Amino acid sequence: MTELAEKNSSDVNIPGPDLTAGLQNETKKHSDSTRVVHPSGRTGHGRAIQILRIAAFAVYFSFCCFIIGITQFIGSPLYFVNRDWYYAYMSMTKRSFALTVTLMTHLFGPTTMRISGDESVAGQIFPTSGGGVEFKFPERMVMIANHQIYTDWIYLWWIGYANRPGMHGHVYIILKESLKYIPIMGTGMMFYGFIFMSRKMATDQPRLAHRLNKLKQKKVDPWGNTYLDPMWLLLFPEGTNLSNNGRRKSSQWAAKNGLQDPEHVMLPRSTGTYFCLNELKDSVEYVYDCTVAYEGVPRGKYGEEIFGLASTYFEGRPPKSVNLYWRRFRVADIPLDDPKTFDLWLRDQWYKKDALMEEYLSKGHFPPLPGAEVNYVETEVRTRYPWEILQIFSVVGICVLLWHNMRRLLQATSAKFGFLV
Fold first, then answer.
1. Is this model's pTM higher than 0.85 or not?
2. Own/partner pairs for 359-365, CB < 8 Å, 24+ apart?
3. Average pLDDT, stretch 147-159?
């Protein structure tokens, strides 16, 4: 949930992105863009082209979401037939949404992805011959990251797409409850199995425990072997994206509790992360931490002020590069027996993350990959094949074709036997 940094440490702080926040407050951010030096240069498109891009963006995204929603509705009866089939089907629709936002970013907001990590992820990130990237991250993990701007979740979800095997159908995000009431998208996120929280401890903790229990249930294959479904659970321990308001509240929290205040990130709140890891510790071996930095954000400024939806997708001024630095922690090595000890551990990781951000701002890049052929893997957010987006229309297309053929068969039958259908 995006604003839980405002809560005290006794609350169930369950972090997550606001998938729609970037749709708000865009009008005033760029009203004086001609007077502000933007790190991605002057506006790449005139007003008329921007209007056309907005229209094309709206048509593309809305139509794809509508088709995915129809696909989910078609498969929803599987819930009452076979739960494993149902969840596998909804995972397929989740992959469709990942393809939608990946192609959307490639077409409307192309950017260079620059990826590295420390020795804990050595051999798990490598370039492909076609200029892409592949990851060998596990099928089950908890992913934590600093929260820079509203679109962080798009780039992190794309990591699941680039992973082998593809994990973009098994990403789970924790969101504030109001988002489930968004037409079409809210229903779609419920079908995806995303976890909605109300920020009330008495309500949220049992609900969260119930949802996490579903994610760690063991299944049995036809040969009697037990297994766990793939799962990437995405958490933002800061609770909200970095902003002037969030930075101020983080500083106040640090002063109130006598803590060092990091300069480039906000202090994480550990309650929700601690709860999730304790619930999943017997079914997840690793936590993967990602430090996210956007090229062009000056020291002391905030990415949300520069790379909003208008700049990134409509004006032709996306970030020149999105930089990701990965670290991995074994869950068995994380202190999960005591919440205070865990709070110290998580805060220490955020101080290290703050040092990484300082290095990025000073040198223009994160530390290189150790022992790899390349220091950084550079690629772009894109699908592997241009026609891959057509997958999202497959179920609806098949249903339309079946309906068409059934109508023709019924019409032919009625003509032959002389009755009206």
1. yes
2. 360/293, 360/323, 360/325, 361/264, 361/293, 361/299, 364/295, 365/114, 365/116, 365/323
3. 93
